[in-house]
Design goal:
The complex is a heterodimer of chains A (119) and B (589). By secondary structure, chain A is of the alpha+beta class. Chain A has a single domain, classed as 3-Layer(aba) Sandwich (Glutaredoxin), CATH 3.40.30. Helix content of chain A is 32%, strand content 18%. The longest helix of chain A has 15 residues, at 24-38. Chain B is α/β, with parallel strands linked by helices. Chain B has two domains: 3-168 and 175-295, Rossmann fold; 318-392 and 430-588, Rossmann fold (3-Layer(aba) Sandwich). Chain B is built from 24 helices and 16 strands. Chain B has a nine-stranded mixed sheet, sandwiched between helices. A seven-stranded parallel sheet of chain B has the order 12-11-13-10-14-15-16, with helices on both faces. In chain B, helix 3 packs across helix 5 (117-133), helix 16 (392-407) crosses helix 18 and helix 18 crosses helix 21. Classes of the chains: A alpha+beta (119), B alpha/beta (589).
Chain lengths: 119, 589
């Protein structure tokens, strides 16, 4: 099975609504990644603001950043090789890498645990 | 009229939170209350979040974030939490370890994401919660006073179940609005306890501090409602700086007095239900323990501020600002400053002045009352002045709808709640407003545009992150309107754009304005003019109380003129609310 890693740019909030523009790409990619994770595929995401270590430890990504700066993000790796720079994979590309149908990748993330501070 | 606030004659809860916009006198009221309670023999801790901490000057002690006893007041301890500092420390803890490991440009994008108002708010709450939830603190002190309160936005975020679920650590999400909380599941119990203490009426009183003027009372009403909704129901209102008497033969004194009384009569209905007290307008500034004691012990005017030395100050009026913009052919003019300093009046007066010079001018105001447009009607308004008003509430609501439409499709209820709360962040309002301004500016290619609010540096930098704005745009599928793209470079061009900082000659407004200026400079915008508005020093009032205040203004006028402003103008306190065209002309004389 292929392993896909997405290295996101620094984001204020991943919903993309705190930033200067609302990026439906973010919502789309979040849903796709979530669906794939649930199906047990090897896909992961790293946000620069929350998880800078990943951007240091991964040599490939680090090199892209040194060469091209922050505009190169998001960077997408398949099996450890850089396949995309400065854009997210399309739903079709993801489906192709994991040999599944694009329609399978539309599921919204669900909250796993819910702890209410008010109770 | 209200009874005078006197902590010596009332039952006081263990926790007191003072809330209100900058310049209403939160810190001095909190200090005076703390000293009064300590003088009764109660053990008191005063927690200040004043970044400039003039508290240190008041109490004559260097404060740290650990409680320290105050030598000049038995039973009183104080500590100073600087939320900006706390946010900075948090930012450094995130970024520091990666210096030299990631390129500087990459670190800069992280840093900007962590520079929003939310990070500061949450960092401050984090500091509060330790004090609120710590049993030892409660055992040690009878009263803990905070000179500020957490905002509704922060408290709501903390009450959302999603904030405490796997949502935050889920690799598909991460929210820096809750930056300092991310991955700090261990703090959940602490925050819950803090929120519980806040909403327990036996433990906590929220004290809304307002000035006797319409905008300040409106703001208190808004805060009161918002915090009631969250469950903080035990509230008092203190109307601070109420002139007790006036001199009928002195025009300024009479107008000042009447305006205050009129504002109080127009107190919003809901706020009238809150237990209200007042504090007198005094001739001295509330610094030094003796002055603080004086506030509750005797309301007569005893001492005058000693006449401050130095030459009389002579600053130009607003007409110099207008001449300067005319001479340099400035096309876009923003006035900025905190609430209650008169940004709208100054913007309107600049617009009137330029139109009098024969320019075509468009004035855009965010004044919610929108009575500006109303009073301009039929007041001999010229053909070359047009006005539009941007209603922040409507713009923000519209923006939120668009966002939820674009991003919220098919989300679970919890996520939608989270998305909606993310949208309550201060950044959202700014971006929504900025888009509205940009539209106005775009439509007015052949006119001078005057706008009574400016975006913050943080917004501009987000919109323009790391100089790569256009690249960013070509990549992002999010829809940044063309008008915004066009406006950004214009804003940075001093030949085209002028920013006017409006302030009052008092400690907090000046220090807050200085921070606004720093923030804009970060985004590469240099404010050209400072305007000191509503100055008593610039009037010739003979009223003893007002005269004392006029003299204490000098220090701040001097500071603005000598240290902060490239160019500085002053406007005397005027007898009426200037809103009509012809009255506005008086500003310019």
């Amino acid at each position: 099975m292929k392993k896909v890693e997405i290295f996101d740019p620094a984001m204020c909030c991943s919903t993309g609504v705190c930033g200067p523009t609302v990026d439906p790409e973010l919502t789309r990619i979040a849903s796709a990644v979530y669906s794939l994770e649930k199906k047990g595929f090897a896909i992961s995401r790293h946000n620069l603001t929350d998880d800078p270590g990943a951007f240091v430890d991964n040599r490939q990504v680090n090199q892209v950043l040194v060469d091209k700066g922050p505009d190169a993000l998001p960077v997408v790796l398949v099996n450890g090789e850089v396949v995309k720079i400065a854009e997210y994979p399309t739903t079709e590309e993801l489906a192709e890498w994991f040999e599944t149908a694009p329609s399978e990748l539309q599921e919204k993330p669900r909250v796993r645990v819910s702890l209410n501070i008010n109770n | 009229m209200y009874s005078l606030f006197n902590p010596n004659q009332m039952a006081v809860t263990p926790f007191l939170f003072f809330t209100g916009k900058g310049g209403v006198g939160k810190t001095s009221t909190a200090c005076a209350t703390a000293v009064a309670l300590a003088d009764q023999g109660k053990k008191v801790l005063l927690v200040s979040t004043d970044p400039a901490s003039n508290l240190q000057d008041v109490l004559e002690v260097q404060l740290t974030n650990d409680p320290k006893s105050i030598p000049s007041v038995a039973n009183l301890s104080a500590c100073n939490i600087d939320p900006e500092q706390a946010a900075k420390a948090y930012k450094e803890s995130v970024i520091g370890p990666y210096r030299g490991k990631l390129p500087d440009a990459v670190l800069a994008t992280m840093e900007e994401q962590l520079s929003g108002a939310c990070t500061v708010e949450i960092a401050a709450f984090d500091e509060f919660s330790h004090l609120l939830a710590d049993e030892e603190i409660l055992a040690q002190y009878d009263h803990v006073l905070f000179d500020t309160a957490p905002t509704g936005h922060t408290l709501r975020l903390l009450q959302l179940p999603t904030a405490w679920s796997g949502f935050l650590e889920d690799s598909t999400h991460g929210a820096s609005c809750l930056g300092p909380l991310a991955g700090l599941e261990g703090k959940k119990a602490l925050y819950k306890k803090a929120v519980d203490s806040l909403s327990d009426g036996d433990k906590t009183t929220l004290i809304l501090v307002a000035r006797p003027d319409n905008s300040s009372l409106l703001e208190a009403d808004r805060a009161s409602f918002e915090l009631k909704e969250i469950g903080i129901k035990n509230q008092w209102l203190i109307v601070n700086g109420l002139l007790q008497t006036h001199q009928p033969e002195d025009a300024v004194s009479t107008a000042f007095y009447k305006r205050q009384r009129a504002a109080i009569e127009q107190t919003p209905e809901a706020l009238k239900q809150v237990m209200a007290y007042s504090l007198p307008y005094v001739s001295y500034s509330l610094t030094g323990v003796e002055n603080l004691r004086h506030l509750f012990s005797s309301y007569s005017i005893t001492s005058f501020e000693t006449e401050e030395g130095g030459d009389p100050l002579d600053l130009p009026g607003l007409n110099s600002v207008i001449d300067d913009f005319s001479e340099h052919n400035t096309r876009v003019i923003f006035t900025m400053g905190k609430g209650g300093v008169g940004k709208t009046s100054v913007a309107s007066a600049i617009a009137v002045g330029l139109s009098e010079k024969g320019y075509k001018v468009h004035l855009t105001t965010t004044d919610p009352a929108a009575h500006l447009a109303y009073t301009f009607e039929g007041s001999g308004i010229r053909d070359n002045l047009s006005i539009s008003s941007i209603n922040p509430d409507i713009e923000v609501a519209r923006y939120k709808e668009t966002v939820i439409e674009q991003a919220g499709g098919g989300m679970t209820e919890e996520e939608l709640a989270y998305l909606k709360e993310d949208l309550e962040s201060p950044c959202t309002e700014e971006i929504a407003l900025f888009q509205a301004f940009a539209k106005v500016v775009e439509k007015s290619e052949n006119e001078i545009v005057v706008i009574d609010t400016a975006p913050t540096g943080h917004t501009l930098l987000l919109l323009d992150s790391t100089e790569a704005y256009h690249k960013e745009m070509s990549r992002s599928t999010g829809d940044v309107p063309d008008s915004v793209k066009k406006l950004l470079p214009r804003l940075r061009n001093p030949k085209e754009t002028g920013v006017v900082i409006v302030t009052l000659a008092e400690a907090t407004p000046v220090l807050e304005a200085a921070r606004l200026e720093e923030d804009l400079k970060r985004a590469g915008i240099e404010p050209k003019w400072w305007v000191i508005n509503q100055s008593l020093y610039a009037t010739n009032t003979a009223d003893a109380v007002l005269r004392g205040r006029a003299i204490s203004e000098k220090k701040w006028i001097r500071k603005v003129d000598a240290e902060l402003a490239e160019k500085c103008a002053i406007i005397p306190w005027l007898e009426e609310e200037k809103i009509g065209y012809d009255q506005l002309k008086e500003f310019i004389l």
